[in-house]
């Protein structure tokens, strides 16, 4: 059986940047094992499989090379860019059924794509020493006024505030310890950030998810959505931000990426989170599942 798949770079800042994703359209007839196999063959951090839905415009399932995950931001951007490029959809508002719920996606006239995430849930605060040890850091290399905390807008990630860009770029994690801690706290991985940036953005980030076969990811939509909510909660953003926040990621991997996050609040409560960006370098390949 031969399957047509698409590859592209989502959240790309340059043609060399972004996070590569796979996309398979019309995946209704594929078994879960076939989807896992395709994701493994493509070898990207996530591949999106689109199928018919009874409650949304599309049903989308997301697979890493080793696991199915409930939601993936950059693969969502890739999926809807692929639909647009193949003339399946036009700019407008759509919905996707995912294991994280039914979420809205807006395709803009400028080809940028914004996906709605779930409103944030703030889980436990974790001791900085435990996380620092797994990153080969000292706890005083983290920002003193922000906690290490698990936050989810669809997926549980550990937010890790780092003092400055130099420390962030120099981090060399102990991936076995990161795996163990991710397993212990039932999280996808770590989302590190500093409030310094390269291009005047709101933060610069690195993301480690070795438990799911992703040592480092160059652009992470769900984690940056959670980061935007975390920064709002701890007073680092203005209420009713009238423009998307911009987060940098992937620079340590030489894959410059730009993720836009829009936070809408009522008082101290986040009522809507949107994450988006653009995609580049769409190509088509054929996979033989024999």
TrEMBL record:
Catalytic site positions: 46
InterPro entries for this protein: Phenazine_PhzF-like (IPR003719)
Cited Pfam families: PhzC-PhzF (PF02567)
Entry keyword set: Isomerase
Domain of life from the UniProt record: Bacteria
Keyword Cell membrane tagged: no
Entry GO CC: cytoplasm
The keyword Cell inner membrane is assigned to this record: no
GO molecular function annotation: isomerase activity
Family that this chain belongs to: Belongs to the PhzF family.
Descriptive protein name: Phenazine biosynthesis protein PhzF
């Amino acid at each position: 059986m031969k399957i047509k798949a698409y590859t592209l770079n989502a959240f790309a800042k340059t043609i060399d940047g972004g996070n590569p994703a796979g996309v398979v359209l019309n995946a209704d007839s594929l078994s879960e094992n076939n989807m896992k196999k395709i994701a493994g063959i493509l070898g990207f951090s996530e591949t999106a499989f689109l199928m018919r839905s009874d409650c949304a415009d599309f049903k989308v399932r997301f697979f890493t090379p080793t696991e199915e995950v409930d939601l993936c931001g950059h693969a969502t951007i890739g999926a809807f860019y692929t639909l647009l490029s193949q003339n399946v959809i036009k700019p407008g508002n759509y919905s996707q059924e995912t294991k994280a719920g039914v979420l809205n996606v807006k395709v803009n006239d400028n080809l940028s794509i914004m996906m709605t995430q779930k409103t944030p849930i703030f889980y436990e605060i974790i001791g900085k020493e435990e996380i620092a040890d797994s990153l080969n850091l000292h706890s005083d290399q983290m920002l003193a006024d922000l906690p290490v905390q698990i936050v989810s807008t669809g997926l549980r990630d550990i937010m890790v505030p780092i003092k400055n860009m130099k420390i962030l770029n120099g981090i060399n994690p102990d991936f076995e310890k990161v795996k163990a801690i991710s397993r212990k706290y039932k999280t996808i991985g770590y989302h590190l950030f500093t409030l310094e940036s390269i291009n005047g953005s709101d933060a610069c980030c690195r993301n480690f998810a070795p438990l799911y076969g992703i040592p480092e990811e160059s652009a992470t939509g769900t984690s940056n959505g959670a980061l935007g909510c975390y920064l709002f909660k701890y007073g680092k953003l203005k209420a009713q931000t009238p423009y998307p926040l911009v987060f940098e990621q992937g620079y340590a991997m030489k894959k410059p990426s730009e993720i836009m996050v829009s936070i809408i609040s009522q008082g101290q409560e986040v009522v809507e989170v949107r994450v988006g960006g653009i995609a580049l370098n769409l190509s088509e390949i054929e996979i033989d599942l024999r």
